Amino acid sequence: MSDTEVSLWSKALLIKIHVITGWVIPDSESMMNILVEQFEKHLAESFGMLNTEEIEYAFRSLGTTIEDWGKNMNLNLTDKVLLKYVEKRFNASEAERKVKVAPPVQKIYTDDEILNMRRKDIEGAYQAMRKGVVPVIYEFFGEVLVDDGFIENRADLHEFFVWCLGNAVDHIYTKEPPCN
Question: What is the DSSP string of 131-154?
Fold first, then answer.
C-alpha cells in the first residue's frame, strides 16, 4: 500500500477488524485517534507489502482464533494476526516457486563427448602425477590410451605414465602422441 492508501484506509480497517474479530475498540475519540495514527504508521513501516484486501482476509482467516482477553485493540494484537499471515504468505510463495522451477535439462552425452571427458580425466591425473600427487587410476584410462594408440595393451599403463614423467612430457593429450 502507498502512504496515501494507508492514510485513507487505517480507520476503516480498524473498524472492519473490530467487526470481524469482535475486538474492543477504544471508546474515547482521542484514544481512537491515537490508535488510528499508530496503526497507520505501523502498517506503513511493517506491512506495506500488503493491500487492504489482504489485511481484511488475514483477519477473517486468522483473527478469529486470536484471544484478546477483553483488552482494547492494540498493535500487539493486530501483529499476532498480520505476522502469522505474512509468514503463511511467504511459505505459500516459496512452495509455489519450488513447483514452478523446471527440473534441470537432462544432457545425454554422445560417445565422442564421453571419450573426450575421459581424455580430460587422464590428462588431469597425469598433471597431478607431475605435481607429486598419486591420483586414482580408473580402468578406462587403459582402454582409452590403447584406443588412442598411446599404449599397446592395458598392462603397459603404469609404464607409460612412468615413461612420460621420466621424459618430462608436459601433456599427454596434444595433437600428436608424445611417445611411440
Answer: TT------HHHHHHHHHTTS-SSG
